[in-house]
Write a structure and sequence with these properties.
- Helix 1 (2-13) packs antiparallel against helix 3 (94-108), helix 3 (94-108) crosses helix 10 and helix 8 (290-304) crosses helix 10 (357-369).
- This protein has helices spanning 2-13, 23-35, 94-108, 130-134, 194-204, 206-212, 250-270, 290-304, 321-325, 357-369, and strands spanning 41-43, 47-52, 61-67, 116-122, 145-152, 160-161, 165-168, 170-179, 219-228, 238-247, 274-283, 286-288, 330-336.
- The chain contains ten helices and 13 strands.
- 31% of the residues lie in helices and 23% in strands.
- Strand 3, helix 3 (94-108) and strand 4 (116-122) form a beta-alpha-beta unit.
- It is an alpha+beta fold.
């Protein structure tokens, strides 16, 4: 089984695809489900919902979700299973997530289940829109809990983080335009310089984190791009900024854009230009629910041992799995997958320790089987 799960991961690793456009990945999953004689329902042509029913019609339902999509990254990690799609790469472990889920389904498909099991193969996690499509599907209604495993290379292999509370940050984006009046670069007093205003904002906005946010909270404001101007001797007519904001608390997620908009308008006024900010809501903070976390912890102790369970700081990465957790008690399980040659997620040389894949599959199965002893 361990050799098979690694083979699945490597085969999926070679065919990374983006967003909802996952024809090869979807075909691979569909072929695997058919080989297991499992019924499924397709969601927007590339996603899947699989339901395995308990003989007890009154049994509870638990849900497991895996993401499917890859990133626009050119792979640099040398291996015999490198990406065959130029400019695309599974640089976040989703290939491993799918492999674990297929192995999990293979293991439980003929067992007598103590609960109903719903499995989601979800596209479009990286652009934070996939979960929204699944939320209203009838299979999710009334579920006891929902789980996802994320292979997490900052954590040592053999360790796992699944405690209650914030595990991943909210992830929202912003777009700002400063609009000025152009003039000759040698006579800037004849215009209004929006580029200087934009640079002032890039510098000043970091004071929100250092002076407005409690140091005990986690929050990040990153300006990722700045574009403006056409020539070395012309004042730009407008400058566009884009960036992202990450927070560990819902209250901060609401407050930071208020502070940012106020700063944007104040700086624009000081430089006599126009400034407007657009806030693009993404995903909330991934907050593990006490019920789901306790279920995952009970299973992890049996599969990995009590000493394997660790605490790990809330990461600045975001996850659209948080959208499910607003409706269903959920647990994001961060399964350690660090390799000897460590590179972070989204890096072109990112890789995982494949030995932990079977552990992830077994952990999901144990969560299901522990429902035998769970009381209402």
């Amino acid at each position: 089984m361990e050799e098979k799960i690694i083979t699945i991961r490597r085969e999926l690793h070679q065919i990374p695809e983006i967003g909802w456009n996952l024809p090869k990945t979807s075909a691979y999953i569909e072929k695997s489900l058919k080989e297991m004689n499992l019924s499924y329902r397709k969601i927007q042509s590339t996603g899947f919902i699989i339901c395995l029913k308990s003989q007890n019609k009154d049994a509870k339902t638990i849900i497991f979700r895996t993401d499917m999509d890859a990133l626009n990254v050119t792979e640099e990690y040398p291996s015999e299973y490198m990406s065959t799609h130029p400019g695309k790469m599974h640089a976040c472990g989703h290939d491993g997530h799918m492999a674990m889920m297929l192995s999990f389904l293979e293991s439980i498909k003929e067992k007598e289940l103590p609960c109903h099991v719903v499995v989601l193969f979800q596209p479009a996690e990286e652009n934070m829109i996939g979960a929204k499509v699944f939320l209203d599907e009838p299979e999710l209604k009334g579920a006891l809990a929902i789980f996802a495993i994320h292979l997490w290379t900052p954590i040592d292999s053999g360790k796992v983080c699944l405690g209650e509370g914030p595990r991943m940050s909210s992830a929202d984006n912003f777009e700002i335009r400063f609009q000025g009046q152009s003039s000759h670069g040698g006579e800037p007093h004849c215009g209004t310089d929006c580029l200087v205003a934009a640079c002032s904002f890039v510098h000043s906005v970091q004071s929100i984190i250092s002076r407005r946010v409690d140091p005990n909270d986690k929050a990040v404001i990153t300006v990722g791009s700045i574009h403006g101007g056409t020539a070395h001797n012309i004042l730009a007519t407008h400058v566009d900024l884009t960036g992202t904001v990450r927070t560990s608390r819902p209250e901060l997620r609401k407050q930071i854009p208020v502070w940012m908009k106020k700063m944007c308008h104040s700086i624009a006024s000081a430089y006599e230009v126009q400034g407007e900010m657009k806030w693009i809501e993404g995903t909330p903070t991934t907050i593990n629910h006490p019920l789901a976390s306790s279920m995952a912890e009970q299973a992890a102790k049996k599969i990995m041992g009590e000493n394997a369970i660790i605490d790990f700081p809330t990461t600045g990465a975001g996850e659209d799995f948080a959208l499910y957790m607003e409706h269903i008690p959920g647990c994001m399980i961060l399964l350690g997958a660090k390799t000897e040659e460590y590179y972070p997620h989204h890096h072109p040389r990112f890789n995982i320790n494949e030995e932990v894949l079977k552990t992830g599959s077994s952990l999901m199965e144990q969560i299901v089987m522990d429902m035998n002893t769970k009381k209402d």
